[in-house]
Amino acid sequence: MVHLPYKCFREMSDRQMIITTAPKATDEMKARADRACTALSAPYVERGRFSIASLQRRWNCPVLVAEAGRLVLHTHGKESLFYHPNVAMIRAKQYIRTGSDPMVKAAGLKKGMSFADMTLGLGSDALVASLAVGNSGKVFGTEVNPVLCHIVKEGFRTFKTGNDTVTQAMRRIHTTCSDHLDWLRNMPNSSVDVVFFDPMFKEEVKGSDGLSPLKQLAASSQFEPFLQNAVAEARRVARKAVILKDHFRSGRFQEGGFTVEVRPSATYHFGVWKKQDRAIMD
Questions:
Q1: What is the pLDDT of residues 131-166, one digit of tens each?
Q2: Which CATH architecture has domain 87-274?
Q3: Superfamily name and number for 3-82
Q4: What angle do CA 212, 213, 214 make, to 5 degrees?
């Protein structure tokens, strides 16, 4: 851990990010901060009596805070980002109760299958996919932004949901900080059953202001050009299907040659591309 006391504030500027703890740091918080420093190559700053706003002003950068049980990224003003299942928890419990989920159905997920989420974000789809494929299956998630990736990876590793089935599904997700294209290009042909994409919508969705900090971390050009690169590699890697979740007005469905599964009254649809049934040589 690179330790920078308060006296170093004036000696450094324009940092991408600094890492600190909540006041009166516990050993758990310090260990969490240490892991973040190592993963993100960012300096650690003693919290002392300084507020987050004070640290942001002095360092002119976002502040990642190791708290009890979580990491919290403070970006601009009062905006913050941390891992919490939120809607994913609702989906997970509903899937456990009913065995039904729109994404699971579109992807045709069953026990023992493998699923690769190329746009992990906060991991909602990956969590439900992990429930669907079970202990015998595998779920991979790639996220290009290292800060978001580490926050989510740490969340998957330590978050306590209060539901053992959901918690274990969370722990099974293999998270990689990588560009989706790099990850796909390093995978053999027909090596994953389903490759899944859920890029940031180009269309604005009402009521999505809570995603503002997440949008700041997302790569603005992560899917351009979408057709020429991502879809072509995904089709090579996928053993069974490639799935695109996107805004119902999105032109990516047509660009990528997907068959659209229309969801009436929903803001997003699923585009599905399936490989023809044939003997697959691994």
A1: 999 999 999 999 988 999 999 999 999 999 999 999
A2: 3-Layer(aba) Sandwich (3.40)
A3: Brix domain (3.40.50.10480)
A4: 90
